[in-house]
Amino acid sequence: MKKSPLQNYLSVLENIKKQIKESRLKAALSVNSELIRLYWKIGAAILEKQKTAKWGDKILENLSRDLSEAFPDMKGFSKRNILYMRRFAEIYSDFEFVQQAAAQIPWFHNVVIMQAASDQIERQFYIKETIENGWSRNVLEVQIKTKLFHRQGKALNNFKQTLPAEISDLVNQTLKDPYIFDFLTITTEANERDIEKSLIEHVEKFLLTLGKGFAFVGRQYQLQVDEEDFYLDLLFYHIHLKCYVVVELKTSKFKPEHAGKLNFYLAVIDDKLKRADDKPTIGILLCNDKGGLTAEYSLSGINKPIGVASYEITEKLPQNLKSQLPTIQEFEAELGKKFKIKK
To answer: How far apart are CA 59 and CA 254, in angstroms?
Structure first.
């Protein structure tokens, strides 16, 4: 029976959509493989230098800092992750195996397997099962905890070089892996990061030249929470107020999740850096929406017990802070010199 024009169109549409999905997945897997190979090479270089030049922890800290500064768009150069790279190269001395197997799954799947599996056979088993079943990291962790290998493990012959199922959790995590996006540096995101970087540099200079007690602590300041890395755009310590000040910048209009993330950072700073005689940490949120910039403060709630992450977003500063912190109007006036302010 002859197809109608509509049926022909829908058939072509479905075929094109399938091709797009397959190409998109192939591209993501290709980038993932290249990233895994890069991490192995970095780890191998470190192993070699630790043997010949006696590199210690201090060198790795310097390497982490210098790589993070040289490649600010990539979030994979924390000291902890560099140690994972070294371990990765150490346990997988055969680069062919890395290319054939380990490079087919995301980095943190590999980290989970490295930490939990006791030998090479067990590692190979979990890599193979992850690829064939499309496991997410959470599912992989459950399978390891329930000792799947000891229940049904066996030696491996080869690894399939086929694409995993489109709907698998592994595919979803690979496509959304922030390390892959950072490594690829997609043009649109790179442009946004350039704007954000320029904003950060300008805000840093602005606050340090105010003469109101801001002391610079760090840019892209690293926090570790539950083995995850987070990076603050800017961190200051205010000498007169005796508190830390976190500055976060967004290249989009204000969204509630921006405030939630900032408040999370404030709670972590209060927990990890704040001393007993310090005041609660203050947050400054700057959002740039299509050339228009708005600023908000996030201040600790009054009479809240230490450790409770309760903050409110406000444009109005309490009287005791007005002389020590720039007003919203000062922020907008200053940044308006560099970026158009929407009124």
So the answer is: 40
What 8-state DSSP symbol labels residue 325? Answer: S
| Cβ atoms 61, 22 nearer than 8 A | no
Average pLDDT over residues 235-255: 81
Q: Which residue has the tokens 């995301």?
A: 106
CB-CB neighbours of 193 under 10 Å: 16
Counting residues of the chain whose pLDDT is more than 90, the rounded percentage is 14
Place of tokens 């540099």: 201
Q: Edge-to-edge strand order for the sheet containing 282-289?
A: 214-225, 228-238, 243-250, 282-289, 292-300, 311-314
Q: Looking at this protein, which amino acid is placed at residue 294?
A: T
| Contact by Cβ (8 Å): 39, 76 | yes
For residue 284, the SS3 value is strand
Residue 78 has pLDDT above 60, yes or no: yes
Mean of the per-residue pLDDT values for the chain?
A: 74
- Cβ-Cβ contacts under 8 Å for 26 (sequence gap 6 or more): 163
Collapsed DSSP state (helix, strand, coil) of residue 91: helix
144: which strand partners? none
Q: Which two tokens stand for residue 289?
A: 């929406």
Report the predicted TM-score, pTM, of the whole model to 2 decimal places. Answer: 0.50
Tokens of 175: 């496509």
- Side chain identity, residue 234: L
Residue 318 predicted with pLDDT over 70? no
pLDDT for 280-300, tens place per residue?
A: 888 887 775 534 444 555 544
